[in-house]
Write a structure and sequence with these properties.
The chain is mainly α. It contains 27 helices and twelve strands. The strands form six sheets. It has a two-stranded antiparallel ribbon with strand order 1-6. The longest helix has 39 residues. The N terminus is likely disordered.
Length: 704
């Protein structure tokens, strides 16, 4: 790869100019400068800000001669904050309690309760899983199940609910297996966290194992770069980055950390590989519980084998009897029928026993990584070809963001040193990227709208000083995500209405200065979960496997003699699984999302083979058709209508309760009259029709 100087000497003047611009950017580009600690600016309207965040927003508006719109009403704010923090609407009782509380701490009480709920982690973990490319399937070939993927999902939920410091969250996911620990539980969590590096679209059927290895390294580097640094490091795999000051040497310096990391292994099944399965340490209580399960399982297995042996013995006896030539016709028919029944019983028991042996209780396991025996630096792969190798590049960090050189123990990959650099306070990217992602989830757009890309062609922040103020405070306050979120949703800016203002729109049509709250449609999970929640059917979950592999009909190829790897086919669901929150349902890569959560296929669910920081939001006819005709939606409608009928016999009170349940606001007098008239005219099924109409309405679908 030629340097800028070499390009100039060979006459590539325009390219040299572009190169000089790119590789001089580390001195001028905002994202590569150290995070500052700006003071909140002065504002003319001193009564409007509730805190420092609001001063930054109002200052920019006043500079443009604009005024923020009025605050949203309390019902809108209550619905907004509930969906943003938990992905669920408030209950009627919660709305009434909030309306009755006119104290200055009313909103704080609501936010603190939401942050302390299990639903908070279930909501915010889903945002992170989009970035990881999480699925319950390995690769896209043959429906190979990732049996232990759910442990990483539950780890992320717990991390959010326990407010794990974000810098610790980073270190555990990049290098959890290399971190010290004080307890068995901490060690297990550290190991599970490294699923971050494993649970992507790994093509385990790849026959060229050298290519598979460098492709996995590339995926791990791209994921780390995008999720934590907001950079497209993968663009420098075959040449210097075309837009950012990242050289090919930078790529292989970073890639070296993952070259010394074991992620997959070759199986005995044809060309197939599989992702690592790591045994987790157990507490004494966990061991005792496992012992009980193992004993019960051993007893069941022994019973099955006994039944099979008895069936085999009886079948052999019947075969011998049927060899007799002088058997009466009626007797032969009777014995033949019994023999065939025993043969079918043996086949059935064979499958049961194979399934029971494959899924026998064992030490808890997770998908994770470990260092290889002899880690080392990586050679450049010319055009990405693992057999066309260039020079060795010492492991190191992005030069544009660091001048430090890692001191790596000779027998380690260096992932711990990488994690320390990514999570370090001196890294100019990490805290900014994290804060910006959180802002985007709460305000609809990031302060930097290209949330996954802070490079040169990416958008500049609308409020650079505010971004740095929040990033600096985020680090100083212990990288607490709950504390960050709390400060944002209790701001005046977050309270704003989403109403239109002609004068403001003329100056700032994209609302970059945040003169109003952005409106957007609820995502797939929030829509589905809200439908089940309002129908009264939502089932609490404590996590665990998403794929119901305990049913034989859902599992294929588990016989060790099969050349293809074990796989799944979702023919049967657990009782009640369709009423669990969407985050607990299976995610697959090779086809549309199955079963109870098929709504994800229509409402812009993140493609699980990609790393997605911000989902697209579309509005297409198929969405309306799905809401009108889907059997799943109709089930929720029927349950909702039945629930309304149980609440009270008075139609007026039912309507009031329905509006509070679905739209989270009181019904207006006009709506009351029109709904009452509809109920009289529509006759039988009127309540179902009305519930269905509201569930498919824009007001229910939108977060205002």
């Amino acid at each position: 790869m030629k340097s800028c100087g070499q390009i100039i000497r060979t006459g590539g003047i325009l390219l040299a100019f572009a190169c000089a611009v790119v590789f001089g950017a580390e001195k001028t580009h905002w994202a590569f400068k150290p995070v500052a600690n700006p003071k909140p600016p002065k504002v003319h309207d001193k009564a409007w800000p509730l805190g420092d965040l609001d001063r930054f927003i109002l200052n920019r508006l006043e500079q443009k001669g604009l005024r923020p719109v009025a605050e949203s009403d309390r019902f809108t704010w209550r619905r907004r904050v509930s969906f943003d923090l938990t992905g669920l609407p408030p209950t009627v009782e919660e709305i009434r309690v909030f309306e009755a509380d006119q104290s200055t701490q009313a909103r704080e009480k609501v936010v603190d309760r939401l942050l302390a709920s299990q639903a908070f982690g279930e909501r915010w973990a889903r945002h992170w899983l989009d970035l990881v490319g999480y699925a319950d399937q390995i690769g896209t070939s043959n429906n190979v199940f990732a049996e232990h993927a759910w442990r990483y999902r539950d780890y992320v939920i717990d991390a959010y609910n326990n407010d794990k410091p974000f810098d610790r969250f980073i270190r555990e996911q990049i290098a959890g297996d290399l971190l010290p620990h004080k307890t068995v539980e901490e060690r297990a969590a550290n190991l599970v966290a490294t699923g971050f590096l494993v649970l992507g679209d790994i093509e385990i059927v790849e026959a060229d194992k050298a290519k598979l290895h460098v492709d996995i390294v590339d995926q791990q580097l791209q994921k780390t770069g995008k999720a934590f640094l907001g950079m497209s490091i993968g663009c420098a795999r075959c040449h210097d980055h075309k837009f950012d000051p990242i050289t090919q040497g930078d790529y292989y310096a970073m890639a070296g950390f993952f070259r010394g990391t074991s992620t997959v292994y070759k199986t005995k099944r044809g060309v197939w590989s599989d992702v690592n399965v790591i045994e987790l340490p157990e507490t004494e209580a966990q061991k005792a519980e496992r012992d009980k399960h193992e004993k019960a399982h051993a007893d069941r297995l022994a019973k099955l084998k006994g039944e099979r042996e008895a069936a085999r013995k009886r079948k052999a006896e019947l075969d011998d009897q049927l060899k007799k030539k002088d058997l009466p016709k009626e007797e032969r028919g009777k014995l033949t029928k019994e023999r065939d029944e025993k043969a079918g019983c043996i086949v059935k028991l064979d499958k049961e026993i194979t399934h029971a042996e494959f899924f026998a209780p064992s030490v808890p396991r997770a998908h994770g990584v470990r260092d290889v025996e002899k880690p080392g630096d990586m050679k450049i792969t010319i055009r990405g070809n693992p057999r066309a190798l260039g020079k060795v590049v010492p492991r190191g960090f992005l030069h544009v963001a660091s001048s430090a050189r890692p001191e790596i123990p000779r027998d380690q990959s260096g992932r711990r040193e990488l994690a320390d650099w990514v999570a370090g306070r001196d890294n100019p990217l990490t805290a900014r990227v994290a804060v910006n992602r959180t802002w985007q989830k709460l305000f609809g757009e990031g302060l930097v709208r290209t949330v996954d890309y802070f490079g040169l062609p990416g958008e500049r922040p609308s409020h650079p000083a505010l971004l740095d103020f929040l990033a600096d405070r985020f680090m100083r306050e212990g990288w607490s995500q709950k504390r960050l979120i709390r400060s944002l949703v209790l701001s005046r800016t977050y309270r704003l209405s989403s109403a239109h203002d002609e004068r403001n729109h003329a100056t700032d049509p994209d609302n970059r200065l945040l003169w109003r709250m952005n409106r957007f449609r609820l995502d797939a999970e929030a829509l589905r979960d809200a439908m089940i929640f309002t129908s009264g059917k939502l089932k609490p979950s404590t996590g665990g496997p998403a794929l119901p592999l305990e049913f034989q009909e859902n599992v294929n190829n588990i016989d060790p003699k099969n050349v293809n790897p074990p796989s799944f086919s979702l023919r049967k669901w657990r009782p009640g699984q369709e009423f669990e929150r969407t985050i607990y349902l299976p995610i697959i890569r090779s086809a549309a999302q199955p079963g109870p959560a098929e709504l994800r296929n229509v409402f812009d669910f993140a493609q699980p083979s990609e790393f997605t920081g911000q989902r697209a939001i579309t509005a297409v006819p198929t969405q309306a058709l799905f809401l009108m005709n889907s059997p799943e939606v109709k089930k929720h409608v029927a349950a909702l209508a039945a629930r309304m009928k149980k609440e009270t016999a008075d139609d007026a009170k039912r309507l009031e309760y329905l509006w509070l349940s679905l739209l989270n606001r009181p019904i207006t007098a006009q709506e009351q009259r029109e709904a009452a008239a509809f109920l009289k005219q529509a006759g039988e099924g009127a309540w179902s029709e009305l519930c269905h109409a509201l569930l498919a309405s824009n007001e229910f679908l939108m977060r205002l």
